């Protein structure tokens, strides 16, 4: 039964076993970046990073509502040393930052 937003059982369902398996597969290799867009734009999107599959599932169960749009990217394919937008350090009380560091 369609409604004004054309709801359908044929759409991509984040709880579908094949999509959850894909998320789990990615998380076994790298963190994920998740953008959680709230249905009907009720507020700004949530942007989160997950390292653990169980944390991702807890987010869905506690925060997601019908119609929310979930977008996921692999962290390492986007966040690389060759495309850093800002590279800075937090200063001490005198405004100094270290030239080196054990990162």
Describe this structure in words.
The chain has helices at about 15-25, 55-65, 75-80; strands at about 30-35, 45-50, 70-75. The protein is an alpha+beta fold. The chain has a domain at about 30-70. It has a three-stranded antiparallel beta sheet. A hairpin with an 8-residue loop joins strand 1 (about 30-35) and strand 2. About 5% of the residues are buried. The mean pLDDT is about 95.
Number of strands: 3
Helical residue percent band = 25-40%
Distance from first to last alpha carbon: 55 Å
Rounded to an integer in angstroms, the radius of gyration calculated over CA atoms is: 19 Å
Outline: elongated
Strand fraction: 15-25%
- Characterize the main sheet: 3 strands, antiparallel
Average pLDDT confidence is: 93
Biggest sheet: strand arrangement = 2-1-3
Order of helices and strands: HEEHEH
State the helix count.
3
Q: What is the structural class?
A: alpha+beta
Model regions low in confidence, pLDDT < 50 over at least 5 residues: none
